[in-house]
Amino acid sequence: xxxxxxxxxxxxxxxxxxxxxxxxxxxxxxxxxxxxxxxxxxxxxxxxxxxxxxxxxxxxxxxxxxxxxxxxxxxxxxxxxxxxxxxxxxxxxxxxxxxxxxxxxxxxxxxxxxxxxxxxxxxxxxxxxxxxxxxxxxxxxxxxxxxxxxxxxxxxxxxxxxxxxxxxxxxxxxxxxxxxxxxxxxxxxxxxxxxxxxxxxxxxxxxxxxxxxxxxxxxxxxxxxxxxxxxxxxxxxxxxxxxxxxxxxxxxxxxxxxxxxxxxxxxxxxxxxxxxxxxxxxxxxxxxxxxxxxxxxxxxxxxxxxxxxxxxxxxxxxxxxxxxxxx
Length: 327
Ligand code: UDP
Ligand code: MG
Hints:
Layout: E1 20-26, H1 32-46, E2 52-58, H2 65-75, E3 79-84, H3 90-100, E4 105-108, H4 120-128, E5 134-139, H5 147-163, E6 172-179, H6 180-188, H7 196-203, E7 207-212, H8 226-239, H9 243-273, H10 280-313, E8 320-323
Parallel strand pairs: 1-2, 1-4, 2-3, 5-7
Antiparallel strand pairs: 3-8, 4-6, 5-6
The protein binds uridine-5'-diphosphate and magnesium ion (MG).
Residues 25-27, 29, 59, 87, 89-90, 93, 110-112, 114, 222-224 line the site of uridine-5'-diphosphate (UDP).
């Protein structure tokens, strides 16, 4: 540790001192795990074989993921795993991995190599010699992704950034290198509805964005459906913005003002022309519109209420059914 304070040339030092923990959530990744492991180990070798551990979090897989992880952790004692009793989602898996991590530096990485381990040296450099608190990866292209998904993601970031006081980088991945103190802060945020990318923004501090072109999945298939992404986006939006609630109130006030104008106008027209039946079509249209708007506002309220409901139960974020041998 003492060498850190000397002025030795960076090449002469190992990339970092201390333990590095890589957290890898995986669901149905029997094909990806060996590929990830191979690539990760060769990256560590390029970085001078520093001390590291890999924590795989098996998130309710239906394939042979757990068996593959058991074999791997038997053959390499730097590999640990925990296995969930069912699928709890990637957010829960990341949270679980963070709780397990023992490292001084911690990174969350996808199993499919869409988070290239080759970015790690730049990330370590950002933390160790450039004075950043975090280094995070950001995709600058989306080649190979279905256009519908790219478009939906773009819209989501636009809406999120316009509604939230925090700013979210488009294309930001969950792939990020942080120090222990950042991890502790994230873990101190105990909320049940988690959007970790937003939590990093909420904490603040200096983040170095490392940009790279999209890398396709090496093996297996994506676990996200459009519907799953839509629900996740809605949760993220309401976790980091209360603007939709205010919007409902503003709309209510605007329509009250509009109805005051309409009442005056219609009363005067009735007094002069005595033709109340006139305007039936417009009346029905307005009725439909306002009913829709009211239901929408109720929906917004309901969504926030359901989140309070889920938070108030204080259930565990996940249930572990199996784990690697203690070492
Ligand atoms: N994942 C998970 N639980 C889930 C869905 C995904 O642990 O319910 C893992 C998955 O195995 C992968 C990472 O999260 O390591 C990212 O998932 P995926 O590649 O399917 O998402 P995409 O890259 O398409 O956004
Ligand atoms: Mg992926």
